[in-house]
Design a protein that fits this description.
Serine Threonine Protein Phosphatase 5, Tetratricopeptide repeat, mainly alpha
Length: 167
Amino acid sequence: MRNLTMRLVLIAIVLLASTCWADEPTWSIGSANPDLSEGARMLLGGRDEEGIRLTLKGLKAANDKKEEEIALSNLCAGYTNLGDYDTALKYCDLLLQRNDKLWRVYNSKALIYIRTKQYEKAEQELIKGEALNAGARSMKIARALYLDATNPVAPEIEVDDRKRNNQ
């Protein structure tokens, strides 16, 4: 159950982080690029393979740097959702080569490294992302997931659910 919850949180964080930008919260994703826009909708709807296909098509037709960055970010998220972490990291790294000031990409990479139990790398990415935007809610969630994975809290109460024999 805990693993499922962590996976759902991871998916939600990565998708939401990759489709929103702190400096332009009302910007409509891919408004001039229908494939990019529809790809984002597919990814948010859990149709990752179709979302990736459309996003790749939208990337080829990107009108500007911002659309390219959104496409790369969404590809990172989509491949993460599919569990193809190597490909996801490739798109995250391509995006960081273009713009290393996007804290959300560091957040996404940290989540991938947490999921693949590469905790030292996750810590490095968290530090980079927190340096750019320490107060971001998704950075705080990623940090909590990291701490939960590396230093889990031991329960103080133990429930004994064995049945008693009434004799």
